[in-house]
Amino acid sequence: MFRGSMVAMATPMLDDGALDETALARLVEFHIENGTDAIVAVGTTGESATLDYDEHCYVMRRVVEMAAGRITVIGGTGANSTWEAVKLTRCAMEGGCDAALLVTPYYNKPTQEGLYRHFLTVADEVPIPQILYNVPGRTAVDLLPDTVERLASVSNIVGIKEASGNVQRTEDILERCGDRIDVFCGEDAKNLALMLAGAKGCISVTANVAPRLMHEMCAAALAGDRAEAERIDALLAALHKALFVETNPIPVKWALQQMGLIGPGIRLPMTPLSDQHHETVRQALKLAEIL
């Protein structure tokens, strides 16, 4: 159902942290013009943790309106409260999103049974297609392959963004349930390897600044053209690394600002990119022929 380069889009903000709708529209057009296959609105890169409920719903709805059917829109609707996740997922559905991306409940560290019941409850309550999202480095909880396999039988759970950084883990999920749900890479440095192994695409930070190259790399990988995919990925390798020199989305928002696409706004507790990393990110943008 969902394929290729799906951008985990940054949420542009004004200097005071307020939403910047002009820049939001600019980003949506930028991705449509450059071949991005889907937009994830208000995921981790979209600073979902610091948008309140009303803002969260508003941004998802506005991205759908701005996209106007020209690109798939996936709403980031995960929460550490199951019923908040239900409300956000319902908001995504009612706002016109094509699917929802649900991160594992963070901080409260549920058991595997708790994770299973959490995702099952959201899927039962809201019929929109749903993509699981496992990123233990940020949530302190790991959605294990056994639990993914249990959830793969739920009709509207259609995929998983696996961002554990463990290639063997992703290959295990592909082997167990790749015929029932789609697997998407959630770590840019491993996108190519995992798509060649059977992943259907990636949900990418790098695609914020290099959407055309990311789309072309994914298309080549999904077509089995290893040589072309490797050639493009080599151009992106420095970016994959540089965009994580500080916590995401700090570097990518700075990069987007250098490209003239957004202003410097970012919400506390995130802070602007440290001066010491400016040249590293700038050189990675130059290597990818973006600046």
TrEMBL record:
E.C. numbers: 4.3.3.7
Binding site for pyruvate: T45, I203
Site (Part of a proton relay during catalysis): T44, Y107
Gene Ontology BP, a term: lysine biosynthetic process via diaminopimelate
Localisation: Cytoplasm
A Pfam family recorded for this sequence: DHDPS
Annotated metabolic or biological route of this protein: Amino-acid biosynthesis; L-lysine biosynthesis via DAP pathway; (S)-tetrahydrodipicolinate from L-aspartate: step 3/4
Signal peptide coordinates: none
Active site: Y133, K161
GO MF entry, a single one: 4-hydroxy-tetrahydrodipicolinate synthase activity
Gene Ontology cellular component list: cytosol
Keyword Mitochondrion in record: no
Site note L-lysine inhibitor binding, residues: A49, N80, E84, Y106
Described function: Catalyzes the condensation of (S)-aspartate-beta-semialdehyde [(S)-ASA] and pyruvate to 4-hydroxy-tetrahydrodipicolinate (HTPA).
Protein's name in the database: 4-hydroxy-tetrahydrodipicolinate synthase
